[in-house]
Amino acid sequence: MNVVTLKSLSKSYGKKQVVQDISLTIPQGAIFGFIGPNGAGKSTTMKMILGLVPPTSGSIHLFGEDLSTQSRSTLVSSIGGMIEEPSGYAHLTATENLKIVQSLLHFPAENIDWALDIVGLQEAKNQKVGTFSLGMKQRLGIALAICRKPSLLVLDEPTNGLDPYGIEEMRALILRLAKEENVTVMVSSHVLAELEKIATHFAIINKGRMIFQGQRNELFDQHAPALFIRTNHIPEALAAIPTATAVLEGIEVPAIAEEEIPKVCATLLHAGVDFYEVSRPHQSLESIFMQLTGH
Protein backbone atom coordinates (compact mmCIF):
# COMPACT_ATOMS: atom_id res chain seq x y z
CA MET A 1 0.00 0.00 0.00
CA ASN A 2 1.21 3.50 -0.85
CA VAL A 3 0.70 6.03 1.92
CA VAL A 4 1.41 8.98 -0.39
CA THR A 5 0.86 9.21 -4.15
CA LEU A 6 1.60 12.43 -6.02
CA LYS A 7 0.59 12.68 -9.69
CA SER A 8 1.85 15.51 -11.93
CA LEU A 9 1.96 17.87 -8.95
CA SER A 10 2.87 21.51 -9.66
CA LYS A 11 2.88 24.70 -7.64
CA SER A 12 3.34 28.26 -8.86
CA TYR A 13 3.46 31.57 -7.03
CA GLY A 14 2.57 34.14 -9.65
CA LYS A 15 4.90 33.55 -12.58
CA LYS A 16 7.39 31.57 -10.54
CA GLN A 17 6.96 27.80 -10.78
CA VAL A 18 8.35 26.22 -7.61
CA VAL A 19 7.32 22.60 -8.21
CA GLN A 20 6.97 21.20 -11.73
CA ASP A 21 5.06 18.05 -12.63
CA ILE A 22 6.23 15.88 -9.70
CA SER A 23 5.02 12.30 -9.36
CA LEU A 24 6.11 10.02 -6.54
CA THR A 25 4.90 7.26 -4.25
CA ILE A 26 5.78 6.56 -0.61
CA PRO A 27 5.06 2.96 0.43
CA GLN A 28 3.79 2.09 3.87
CA GLY A 29 6.58 1.57 6.41
CA ALA A 30 9.21 3.46 4.43
CA ILE A 31 11.71 5.98 5.71
CA PHE A 32 11.58 8.21 2.64
CA GLY A 33 14.54 10.53 2.16
CA PHE A 34 13.50 13.63 0.20
CA ILE A 35 16.55 15.60 -0.86
CA GLY A 36 17.52 18.49 -3.10
CA PRO A 37 19.43 21.80 -3.09
CA ASN A 38 18.06 24.87 -1.35
CA GLY A 39 15.13 26.26 -3.30
CA ALA A 40 14.49 22.97 -5.10
CA GLY A 41 10.87 22.78 -3.93
CA LYS A 42 11.15 20.29 -1.04
CA SER A 43 9.37 22.35 1.62
CA THR A 44 6.63 23.39 -0.81
CA THR A 45 6.00 19.76 -1.75
CA MET A 46 5.81 18.76 1.91
CA LYS A 47 3.42 21.62 2.67
CA MET A 48 1.15 20.42 -0.13
CA ILE A 49 1.17 16.88 1.28
CA LEU A 50 0.22 18.28 4.68
CA GLY A 51 -2.59 20.30 3.12
CA LEU A 52 -1.02 23.60 4.17
CA VAL A 53 -0.88 25.00 0.64
CA PRO A 54 -2.99 23.95 -2.37
CA PRO A 55 -1.31 22.68 -5.53
CA THR A 56 -1.68 24.65 -8.74
CA SER A 57 -2.28 21.40 -10.63
CA GLY A 58 -2.00 17.67 -10.14
CA SER A 59 -3.33 15.40 -7.43
CA ILE A 60 -2.38 14.17 -3.95
CA HIS A 61 -3.64 10.84 -2.61
CA LEU A 62 -3.08 9.97 1.04
CA PHE A 63 -3.84 6.43 2.24
CA GLY A 64 -5.57 5.85 -1.11
CA GLU A 65 -7.92 8.85 -0.81
CA ASP A 66 -7.81 12.08 -2.77
CA LEU A 67 -6.72 15.06 -0.66
CA SER A 68 -9.34 17.75 -1.18
CA THR A 69 -10.98 20.55 0.77
CA GLN A 70 -13.68 18.10 1.85
CA SER A 71 -11.38 15.21 2.84
CA ARG A 72 -8.56 17.26 4.36
CA SER A 73 -9.83 17.36 7.94
CA THR A 74 -10.26 13.58 8.01
CA LEU A 75 -6.98 12.70 6.31
CA VAL A 76 -4.69 15.08 8.20
CA SER A 77 -5.78 13.50 11.49
CA SER A 78 -3.53 10.58 10.46
CA ILE A 79 -0.57 12.83 9.59
CA GLY A 80 1.97 14.66 11.72
CA GLY A 81 4.39 17.24 10.41
CA MET A 82 7.20 19.60 11.31
CA ILE A 83 8.14 22.07 8.59
CA GLU A 84 11.27 24.25 8.77
CA GLU A 85 11.32 25.18 12.48
CA PRO A 86 9.79 23.53 15.56
CA SER A 87 6.83 25.34 17.04
CA GLY A 88 5.95 25.84 20.70
CA TYR A 89 5.19 28.57 23.20
CA ALA A 90 8.39 29.52 25.04
CA HIS A 91 6.61 30.65 28.23
CA LEU A 92 4.84 27.29 28.63
CA THR A 93 6.16 23.88 29.59
CA ALA A 94 6.42 20.96 27.17
CA THR A 95 3.35 19.37 28.73
CA GLU A 96 1.35 22.59 28.50
CA ASN A 97 2.25 22.95 24.84
CA LEU A 98 0.99 19.44 24.13
CA LYS A 99 -2.20 20.07 26.10
CA ILE A 100 -2.97 23.00 23.80
CA VAL A 101 -2.64 20.70 20.81
CA GLN A 102 -4.81 18.12 22.58
CA SER A 103 -7.57 20.71 23.05
CA LEU A 104 -7.53 21.32 19.29
CA LEU A 105 -7.16 17.76 18.03
CA HIS A 106 -9.01 15.89 20.80
CA PHE A 107 -6.63 12.95 21.09
CA PRO A 108 -6.46 10.89 24.32
CA ALA A 109 -4.66 12.59 27.25
CA GLU A 110 -2.31 9.61 27.67
CA ASN A 111 -0.79 10.43 24.27
CA ILE A 112 0.98 13.40 25.87
CA ASP A 113 3.22 11.31 28.11
CA TRP A 114 3.62 8.74 25.31
CA ALA A 115 4.91 11.41 22.89
CA LEU A 116 7.23 12.99 25.46
CA ASP A 117 8.64 9.57 26.32
CA ILE A 118 9.21 8.69 22.65
CA VAL A 119 11.24 11.86 22.03
CA GLY A 120 13.13 11.66 25.34
CA LEU A 121 11.60 14.70 27.04
CA GLN A 122 9.83 12.96 29.91
CA GLU A 123 12.24 14.36 32.50
CA ALA A 124 11.91 17.89 31.08
CA LYS A 125 8.13 17.84 30.61
CA ASN A 126 7.53 20.49 33.31
CA GLN A 127 10.37 22.72 32.12
CA LYS A 128 9.56 25.90 30.20
CA VAL A 129 10.33 25.62 26.50
CA GLY A 130 12.20 28.95 26.57
CA THR A 131 14.96 27.20 28.54
CA PHE A 132 15.28 24.32 26.06
CA SER A 133 18.35 23.74 23.92
CA LEU A 134 17.88 23.65 20.15
CA GLY A 135 17.97 19.86 20.21
CA MET A 136 15.26 19.75 22.87
CA LYS A 137 13.11 22.16 20.83
CA GLN A 138 13.52 19.92 17.78
CA ARG A 139 12.39 16.93 19.85
CA LEU A 140 9.43 18.92 21.19
CA GLY A 141 8.49 19.74 17.59
CA ILE A 142 8.40 16.04 16.82
CA ALA A 143 6.39 15.36 20.00
CA LEU A 144 3.84 17.92 18.79
CA ALA A 145 3.78 16.15 15.41
CA ILE A 146 3.32 12.61 16.75
CA CYS A 147 1.03 13.24 19.74
CA ARG A 148 -2.01 12.24 17.66
CA LYS A 149 -0.20 8.93 16.84
CA PRO A 150 -0.07 9.53 13.08
CA SER A 151 0.46 6.90 10.42
CA LEU A 152 2.54 9.35 8.35
CA LEU A 153 5.14 11.75 9.71
CA VAL A 154 6.55 14.54 7.51
CA LEU A 155 9.77 16.15 8.79
CA ASP A 156 11.50 19.03 7.04
CA GLU A 157 15.14 19.42 8.16
CA PRO A 158 14.70 17.89 11.64
CA THR A 159 18.48 17.96 12.21
CA ASN A 160 18.86 21.66 11.33
CA GLY A 161 21.24 23.35 13.76
CA LEU A 162 21.92 20.24 15.82
CA ASP A 163 25.36 19.17 17.00
CA PRO A 164 26.63 15.64 16.12
CA TYR A 165 25.15 14.19 19.32
CA GLY A 166 21.76 15.76 18.58
CA ILE A 167 21.87 14.46 15.00
CA GLU A 168 22.56 10.95 16.28
CA GLU A 169 19.61 11.24 18.68
CA MET A 170 17.33 12.37 15.85
CA ARG A 171 18.42 9.44 13.69
CA ALA A 172 17.67 6.99 16.49
CA LEU A 173 14.28 8.63 17.06
CA ILE A 174 13.26 8.33 13.40
CA LEU A 175 14.32 4.67 13.33
CA ARG A 176 12.35 4.00 16.50
CA LEU A 177 9.21 5.62 15.13
CA ALA A 178 9.44 3.60 11.92
CA LYS A 179 10.34 0.23 13.44
CA GLU A 180 8.54 0.24 16.78
CA GLU A 181 5.58 2.56 16.15
CA ASN A 182 4.94 1.58 12.50
CA VAL A 183 5.08 5.20 11.31
CA THR A 184 5.86 5.95 7.67
CA VAL A 185 8.37 8.82 7.70
CA MET A 186 9.08 11.34 4.96
CA VAL A 187 12.17 13.33 5.91
CA SER A 188 14.24 15.99 4.17
CA SER A 189 17.72 16.87 5.34
CA HIS A 190 20.95 18.41 4.12
CA VAL A 191 22.86 16.00 6.36
CA LEU A 192 23.03 13.37 3.63
CA ALA A 193 25.35 11.05 5.55
CA GLU A 194 22.61 10.61 8.16
CA LEU A 195 19.87 9.97 5.60
CA GLU A 196 22.12 7.41 3.96
CA LYS A 197 22.13 5.44 7.23
CA ILE A 198 18.37 5.22 7.67
CA ALA A 199 16.39 5.82 4.46
CA THR A 200 14.81 2.87 2.65
CA HIS A 201 13.68 5.00 -0.31
CA PHE A 202 14.84 8.26 -1.89
CA ALA A 203 13.50 11.04 -4.06
CA ILE A 204 15.86 13.70 -5.43
CA ILE A 205 14.41 17.00 -6.63
CA ASN A 206 16.27 19.78 -8.42
CA LYS A 207 14.87 23.11 -9.67
CA GLY A 208 11.35 21.91 -8.95
CA ARG A 209 11.67 18.71 -10.99
CA MET A 210 12.04 15.10 -9.89
CA ILE A 211 15.29 13.58 -11.11
CA PHE A 212 15.14 10.29 -9.18
CA GLN A 213 12.76 8.32 -7.03
CA GLY A 214 12.95 4.71 -5.97
CA GLN A 215 14.36 2.27 -3.49
CA ARG A 216 17.72 2.81 -1.86
CA ASN A 217 19.39 -0.10 -3.69
CA GLU A 218 18.12 1.20 -7.06
CA LEU A 219 19.78 4.56 -6.49
CA PHE A 220 23.10 3.11 -5.39
CA ASP A 221 23.14 0.39 -8.07
CA GLN A 222 22.53 2.96 -10.82
CA HIS A 223 25.53 4.98 -9.66
CA ALA A 224 27.85 2.23 -8.44
CA PRO A 225 31.57 2.91 -9.02
CA ALA A 226 33.50 0.58 -11.27
CA LEU A 227 34.62 -2.71 -9.72
CA PHE A 228 38.42 -3.12 -9.63
CA ILE A 229 39.90 -6.60 -9.98
CA ARG A 230 43.66 -6.98 -9.54
CA THR A 231 45.11 -9.65 -11.77
CA ASN A 232 48.29 -10.46 -13.71
CA HIS A 233 46.21 -11.96 -16.54
CA ILE A 234 44.60 -8.89 -18.02
CA PRO A 235 44.04 -10.17 -21.62
CA GLU A 236 42.39 -13.34 -20.34
CA ALA A 237 40.25 -11.35 -17.88
CA LEU A 238 39.10 -8.98 -20.64
CA ALA A 239 38.18 -11.95 -22.83
CA ALA A 240 36.09 -13.44 -20.00
CA ILE A 241 34.36 -10.13 -19.17
CA PRO A 242 33.92 -8.09 -22.40
CA THR A 243 32.47 -5.04 -20.61
CA ALA A 244 35.66 -4.57 -18.57
CA THR A 245 38.52 -2.23 -19.37
CA ALA A 246 42.21 -2.59 -18.62
CA VAL A 247 43.73 -0.44 -15.87
CA LEU A 248 46.99 -0.45 -13.97
CA GLU A 249 47.45 -3.87 -12.32
CA GLY A 250 44.10 -5.24 -13.41
CA ILE A 251 40.69 -4.53 -14.90
CA GLU A 252 37.63 -2.42 -14.07
CA VAL A 253 34.06 -3.59 -14.56
CA PRO A 254 31.63 -0.64 -14.86
CA ALA A 255 28.02 -0.27 -13.71
CA ILE A 256 27.69 -3.51 -11.81
CA ALA A 257 25.24 -4.06 -8.97
CA GLU A 258 26.51 -5.43 -5.68
CA GLU A 259 24.66 -8.74 -6.06
CA GLU A 260 26.40 -9.29 -9.43
CA ILE A 261 29.92 -9.23 -7.98
CA PRO A 262 29.99 -12.96 -7.06
CA LYS A 263 28.94 -13.81 -10.63
CA VAL A 264 31.85 -11.77 -12.03
CA CYS A 265 34.27 -13.60 -9.75
CA ALA A 266 32.77 -16.96 -10.72
CA THR A 267 33.15 -16.08 -14.42
CA LEU A 268 36.86 -15.35 -13.95
CA LEU A 269 37.42 -18.55 -11.99
CA HIS A 270 35.57 -20.58 -14.60
CA ALA A 271 37.83 -19.06 -17.27
CA GLY A 272 40.90 -20.02 -15.24
CA VAL A 273 41.87 -16.39 -14.49
CA ASP A 274 43.68 -15.91 -11.19
CA PHE A 275 42.95 -12.64 -9.35
CA TYR A 276 44.14 -11.24 -6.05
CA GLU A 277 41.85 -8.37 -5.10
CA VAL A 278 38.23 -7.33 -5.72
CA SER A 279 37.29 -3.85 -4.52
CA ARG A 280 35.56 -0.61 -5.30
CA PRO A 281 35.34 2.73 -3.51
CA HIS A 282 32.30 3.48 -1.37
CA GLN A 283 29.72 5.51 -3.25
CA SER A 284 28.14 7.93 -0.80
CA LEU A 285 24.71 9.50 -1.07
CA GLU A 286 26.45 12.87 -1.12
CA SER A 287 28.56 12.00 -4.16
CA ILE A 288 25.50 10.65 -6.02
CA PHE A 289 23.61 13.81 -5.13
CA MET A 290 26.44 15.96 -6.51
CA GLN A 291 26.46 14.00 -9.76
CA LEU A 292 22.72 14.24 -10.29
CA THR A 293 22.20 17.88 -9.34
CA GLY A 294 25.48 19.40 -10.46
CA HIS A 295 26.03 20.88 -6.97
Automatic annotation (TrEMBL):
Native organism: Corynebacterium spheniscorum
Domain ABC transporter per the UniProt entry, residue ranges: 4-232
Protein name (database record): ABC-2 type transport system ATP-binding protein
GO MF, one example: ATP binding
Family: Belongs to the ABC transporter superfamily.
Alphabetic keyword roster: ATP-binding, Nucleotide-binding, Transport
